[in-house]
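Notes on consecutive records. When two proteins share a document, each keeps its own sequence and its own token line. Never mix them. Below: protein one.
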Amino acid sequence: MIYIPSCGCQIMNCDLPVRLDTYRGCGFACGYCLERLKRSGDCEPQPEEGVRALRAFILGKRTVHTNWCDWDIPLHWGGMSDPFQPAELRYGRSLAMLRVFADTGYPFVVSTKSTMLLHPPYRDLVRRCNVVLQVSLCSPQYARWERGAPSFGDRLLMLWKLAPIVKRVIVRIQPYMPRIKSDVLHWLRFYAASGVYGITIEGLKWNEGWGELTENYGGSMVYPVGRLAPDYAEISQAAHDVGLRFYCAENRLRFMGDSPTCCGCDGLSGFRVNEANMNYYPILYTERMRESGTGSVFRSLSWTAEASRRFGAMSYEEAMLDVISGC
């Protein structure tokens, strides 16, 4: 059986909810990463998400989690683990995926803090891809939490080298903490000069015990909206002043961004996103989403036998309205 890229609870508020992860876990082991708390041990390739799985999806194969989508929706690669982490040197799984993306021209967004893309054959392939490249860069202050990753300076240099050869580069400021605001503001002009298109920002999420995180949102502790909104407004204005787009990946503050598509692929030819979520009013359903059985993806909101049965019989539209009415 071939498993293919999947979709879960992000269906409610993400324009690119279909995700692809090369590896289970991440060797960078950043100290602020929630996924690090969920997984331990050596990082290994995801058995479900290999080259055959990617080709199957590109050819139109769908599961109960993605049968609502009948177009070439851009994939978000690297949502749970970095595709170009140290394990890639051993397994080469992401290199094989890059070849598929380069050969097919299929649109995707990839998030990384690795400098592996600077070196052949990765560099040669990524320049052929239909890609929005997100480079994770928050602040030099995060060095103590990012000891397993390339330095902040090395990633800055990567911007200069990759921005001229790929379709679009976005600086990913996630997780944002108010203590780094001055650093974020300082580096904006550098990002713009290097050819970066925009920045995307989202606040820190944690389980518990991080002093300033006092609100529960979706099962994680987060900063209060009132603590983040003024900072985001200041950063947004400063970004615009130097010619950068500003995207807000904070679901509670998505409206502050230049587009509800916070990954930075808005306006790109061939990057048709999903507009049937809570970022849009009215919600824009496709004909496929009105077919019975396409609501199965909403089972991820409540992994119970009852939810599986109920949403499995619904259309995507019916399931979305059912969830919204219960909010």
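Protein two starts on the next line and is unrelated to protein one.
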Amino acid sequence: MNPLVSFFIIAIVTFSIPLMLMRYGKNFLIGLMPIYLITANVFAESFFTFYGTIQSLAVPIYCGTFLLTDILSEYYGRKESQKAVWLGFAGQIFFVLMMFIIINSDILPDKLAVYQSTFKVIPRLILGSMIAYLVSQFMNVYFYNKIWDITGRTDKGLFWRNNISTILAQFLDTTIIMFVAFYNSPPFETTAKLWAFIFTTWLFKVVVAYIDFPFMFASKKINNAK
């Protein structure tokens, strides 16, 4: 399958699931956060080329975490979105702990080699992800609520608070995680290559932010219908 097609299919599926879970309440949305985060971390190296740039199929999955916090902020308030942020962080800690124990255990050699090969770059990714995640998600919640204070609870305001908060927070997220996880490592052996990847990845995330807005708008109709 063409990776760009896969990218948009992943985005649509990722953004649709929170809408399906809204009818079951905020706890299901909060619980989805670590699932998205760990899945995005595992597939972070699913790279493909797009007009000479390197992109990852995990980008829309990670962007789904911003949609989650926006939905929680919109309908349940800042405290509930912050709960999701902390639960996602706890999920990553658990994943790292289990990974460390398993790859340092005397399991069958062929299976151990597979795990070690699969997870050799995951610790850097997880470290970068955790730092970037906490900074960007709390800033996303902050930006969202500040813009909300300006725009009020209007449909037009929803567009601005959803997109501006996500775009600003994702620039912070992309810069932090890429430097921690990929600095001086293939395929980003030079700082110029890394910055090019950061900028193009952020632009992809901007596109994804606009893709997720119809889902955010649909969440308003679902919330009103409850």
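For the record: The chain has a mean pLDDT of 84.
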